[in-house]
């Protein structure tokens, strides 16, 4: 008899807890959306930044970081102040981080001191891209 009373008590408590949990409003967790683009063509920075701007509007408060990694021979163009200034200003205005691949800078003998200070430099752009992907960034290579 005692066992049945204990069973009914446990069942009643479980039913009560289940009923109460359904009364608690459910909150939807929406993750921040972060993006990274790896490009080997400096001319692609403008359409990439325009895509970032559109995604920022689309994602609203869930828009996180947008990074562009520049690698390959195009890093030589980063020293052309007339060419790169427009891209740097456009990226800054749209909260896009421009990053130069240090491996490419070394390979093509570009002194990091000769590129705009607004650009970050990472040791290896490809590795950095993979690391960002592992932390949840959506990625594309152009």
From TrEMBL:
This is DsrE/DsrF-like family protein. InterPro entries: DsrEFH-like (IPR027396). Transmembrane segments: none annotated. Keywords: Signal. Residues 1-21 form the signal peptide.
């Amino acid at each position: 008899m005692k066992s049945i009373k204990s069973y009914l008590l446990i069942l009643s408590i479980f039913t009560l807890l289940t009923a109460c949990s359904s009364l608690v409003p459910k909150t939807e967790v929406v993750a921040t959306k972060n993006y990274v683009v790896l490009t080997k063509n400096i001319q692609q920075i403008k359409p990439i930044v325009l895509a970032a701007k559109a995604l920022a509007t689309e994602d609203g408060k869930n828009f996180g970081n947008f990074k562009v990694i520049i690698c390959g021979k195009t890093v030589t163009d980063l020293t052309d102040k007339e060419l790169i200034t427009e891209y740097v200003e456009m990226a800054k205005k749209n909260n896009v981080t421009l990053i130069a691949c240090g491996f490419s800078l070394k390979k093509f003998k570009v002194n990091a001191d000769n590129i705009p200070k607004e650009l970050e430099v990472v040791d290896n752009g490809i590795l950095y891209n993979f690391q960002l992907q592992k932390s949840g960034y959506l990625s594309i290579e152009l």
